[in-house]
Specification:
Layout lengths: L12 H9 L4 E2 H11 L8 H13 L3 E7 L5 E7 L1 H27 L1
Antiparallel strand pairs: 1-3, 2-3
Length: 110
């Protein structure tokens, strides 16, 4: 399965994180695992990309963080979507759908 994994196209990481956190508060490792699972183990988010993105999105007010206890009883920082983050998610989904439809049109006609 490892050979089927691919790099995330630039600009999609925020969208994937926002969508994942919209399901409910999650800590960083759970976010990356959820993206991996829901993408049929194709999209692997490395910690070196995930945590800077989470911090950037927290500074922008799209997510907020709080300390909690993970499922394996360890202290972990959890992230949840803010109202601003929900609006950002809606905007990014619309942009992604428009872009993917345009790319599909080009691929089908070219």
């Amino acid at each position: 399965m490892a050979q089927d994994r691919m790099e995330l196209p630039q600009g999609t990481l925020d969208l994937l994180i926002l969508k994942t956190v919209a399901l409910g508060p999650q800590h960083g490792w759970a976010i990356s695992e959820r993206i991996l699972q829901t993408s049929s183990e194709t999209l692997r988010v490395q910690q070196g990309s995930l945590y800077p993105a989470l911090h950037r999105m927290e500074r922008r007010g799209w997510i907020k963080a709080f300390w909690g206890v993970s499922e394996n009883n360890r202290k972990a920082k959890f992230y949840e979507l803010t109202r601003s983050g929900r609006r950002q998610l809606e905007a990014e989904v619309a942009t992604w759908q428009k872009l993917s439809m345009a790319v599909s049109q080009v691929l089908e006609t070219a």
